[in-house]
Design goal:
The structure is a single chain. With about 150 residues, the protein is α+β, with helices and mostly antiparallel strands. The protein has one domain (about 15-115, about 125-140): 2-Layer Sandwich (HIT family, subunit A), CATH 3.30.428. The chain has 2 helices and 7 strands, in the order βββαββββα. The protein has helices at about 55-70, 130-140; strands spanning about 15-20, 25, 35-40, 80-85, 95-100, 105, 110. It has a 5-stranded antiparallel sheet with strand order 1-2-3-5-4. A two-stranded antiparallel ribbon has the order 6-7. Strand 1 and strand 2 form a beta hairpin. The radius of gyration is 15 Å and the shape is globular.
Amino acid sequence: MINRIWDPENRYTEGFLKEFEHWIWEVSYRQHTLGCFILFAKRPIERFSELTEKEMGSLSKVMQEVEETLKNIKTFNPDRFNYWQMGNSLHHLHIHGFPRYKKSRMFDGKEWVDKTWGNVPAWSRKDVNHELVTKIRDEIMLSVKNTFSQ
């Protein structure tokens, strides 16, 4: 596996989805809405202003692939996507992706409701269990393009 410099103790490995040239896509352990994910810069940087033009350009393509993948999964099929980049606790450039849903979704025997649809997503500081992350990852992996891209 790649060098996950943001997780040196490898406590959060189950969420890995795909390695791109400049980015890593992982399922978030904080499922604010169903399918929340994180895009990590592969280089050890903290700010957008440190990205090269190539890294910045590839970010758009990575986001397009992530969005397309989730839109094409019947279980998820989000209505929108929101993105946050803060870096207050983890000082490594990463972007939180929030799939947004007008209507509830069923996954793993649970109804998932986007309670803040149309507003800023609710932020939870509580990690979900690793088993749920694995189930979300497995559902997404069925549709992930297996090519090394952007």
